[in-house]
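Researcher: Next entry in the queue.
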Amino acid sequence: MGTALARTALNSPETLTSRQKVAIVCMALGSDAAAKLTQKMTPEDVDAISFEIARMDNVSGAAVESVLDEWLARMLAADSLASGGLQVAREILEKAFGTRKAGQVLERIQSQLTSSAGLHRLRNADPQQLGNMVRGEHPQTIALILAHLDPQHTASVLKELDTEVGSEVVYRIARMEKVSPEVIQIIERSLGSETELNVAQGMSTSGGPAAVAAVMNFTTASLEKALLDGVHVKDAALCEQIKNLMFVFEDVGSLDSKALQRLLRDVDSKELALALKVASDDLKGKIMGAMSQRAVQALTDEMELMGPSRLKDVEAAQTNIVGIVRRLEEAGEIIIGGGDDDLVL
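Model: Structure for this entry, 345 residues:
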């Protein structure tokens, strides 16, 4: 039945894979203790570790000692971080292994704890895929998930949901307070066990009106209106609070001339022409006032040659420009509200 497993001699601790290290720990602990350990693993991990154990041969004493030493250090670090915090963990590890190794272990442990915190499998998952996955969930569950994603990602997922459900989710995010880690873990386990998601990095854990305002800045005007209308029905004051925190395309006119000129350097001329198709005359005049006569003529010609445009394309162009404004503001290159009119953000 197939070929025999290729036996592997493990002599150098530096060349061991993570699975090989776990396999060595299991063998060192003995069958009873190893069985308890593997009960907490997924079936896939158990199969992988069993495969490594089956093909191991001639594990050197140095390799075993190194793996057990690393395992002990990690266990000490994890336990002391959980019970006493970073400083306690550092003190315990320094006494056990010295300053240099303690620092190395803590750096690895902290990195792992950070990368695995709350809903890590859902960060930057494909919006359409995530939207399909949560569509049948309770709005509160969806709100908890989306509140832990970055605003642009959340906006993309909301686009995939029914507007009525989306407005309910937005309302719940706006009213959200701190959520216990246990609740996040329950949601993560219930969803993560049923789906395979393509994840990247980056996650926001904020809720409240400001978080919703940030999300709305990445939605089209029509979707924004539909979602906020639903919030208004439930809580008019909350809806007004969200709107006061938002920066919309028309607010570009509130930028001072220096900020406008900096913005225009990063905006594609065709996208600007498209975005201005339904803009107010005041905004058009403010933007053109920050441009040279030659640039104004080129922009005017572009708008005339463009002809009729779909509203959703115009809204998408406006959303992209608002995104550029926020990026420049976050980088400290412009100040939102630097003109005569102050904006609440």
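Model: Confidence is low (pLDDT under 50) at residues 1-7, 112-118, 193-205, 338-345.
Researcher: Noted, moving on.
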